Amino acid sequence: MTNTLSASDNGTSPDGTLPFQETARTRRSYRGFLDKVVPDDVLDAVLQDAQYAPSNCNTQPWDVHIVRGAKLAELSRILHEKNDAADFSPDFSFDMGAFYGCYDERKNAQGKAYYEAMNVMREDKEGRRRAAALNLSFFGAPQVALLFMPSFGDNVRTAGDIGMYGQTFLLSLAARGLGGIPQTSLGFYAGTIREVLGIPAEMKMLFGISFGYPDETAPGNRMRMDRVPVADSVHFHG
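RE: above sequence
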């Protein structure tokens, strides 16, 4: 008698994706990818999932640009040139010094863990610069999703919508054995990216997601950040 194992018995759904809880708890930010392009049918499935993200008044304000191949190489080269020249063109402000208290501690712990994984010491300024610049090479991913948005009011609600789209995109990747990393650092070059890709000026860039097949041997993937207890973040009333 043949004993066959169903998809659900094997911990996956009938379409081969991971169940939700496993997807949510195993998703992580990868900083190293294999040189393997995500097939079009898989990418289409991820994009279809992400399209179901919630948004204020169902405005669906995300304007997503997938860059790969020769265009990705061109974009990376130009971003490195802009970075070397300190030529930044962000749409939104970002101040690393604005964090305080436990948020600053968590930010510092993440930075320390990353540079240690890269074997870069705190006093090695050039090494830290090179490690940070890997963002502009998309950590070796053969494709990146750049998330743009229209500007409404103070942009907070729209940015929240883009964040929900990004998380849905990341979870869909994880469910399929893929990985990604949201990169707000790419937003420092919003104007340059618009120019290279021919994106209208009214579309503002919030962040990008480099994604693909994770390289488990990459130094940047050695670390795994923990999470604070739920009780530290959730408060019950009534």
